[in-house]
Amino acid sequence: MVKRLVYILLLTVMAWLVVMPLSAQGVYFGVKGGFEVVNMEFNDDVFDKSNRAGFFIGPTFVISTMVPGLSLDISGLYNQRKLKVENESINQQSILIPAHARYGASILDFGSIFLTAGPQLAFNVGPSKFYWEDAQNNGKQFALQDTKMSLDFGFGASVGHHLEAIVYYNIPIGKTGDVTWNTVGKSTKNSLSSTKTTANSWMLSVAYIF
Prior knowledge:
Layout (H helix, E strand, L loop, with lengths): L1 H18 L6 E17 L8 E14 L5 E6 L1 E9 L2 E20 L3 E14 L4 E5 L4 E7 L2 E13 L3 E10 L4 E7 L4 H4 L1 E17 L1
Antiparallel strand pairs: 1-2, 1-12, 2-3, 2-4, 3-5, 4-5, 5-6, 6-9, 7-8, 8-11, 9-10, 10-12, 11-12
């Protein structure tokens, strides 16, 4: 119940961020891209924890508002990242829709600095289930969530009116996926095990605003 309420609240916030530009001062189009470092955490110590890498790219819109220093940043990004479970490489492909509010101040004519935060929706567009066996003939499955909600918090700076860089920390709400395994040849009832995983990440983005 609480999870559903959180989803409804975040979807309401994202809808508000989309509608708010009706009173905006200007809308600016750009292209955003960057790199991601993923830290996977498992509920079970059976799996190793280490960093994984990814990248993202796509269009972005920066929307100024009537409030001084406040603007919105809404993007549509293609994201691909490589996860690794027990030395098995898994390529996750997603469409990310982050909707961020940012607040900052100008630094003379040089540019500006700002804080940014907001929800992000991720839609899996690649394979969602992966299967393999290890040396002990254990059959394993890694199943990704098809739709994922998360929160971004970041700090950014712009140079002039066109180039900007932002560092985000992404925190997923709920699990990222499930790992299930069983010993091949034995009954599922006696050998089936599972664990959940979450994937926090650091995202470094660079955007050019036209």
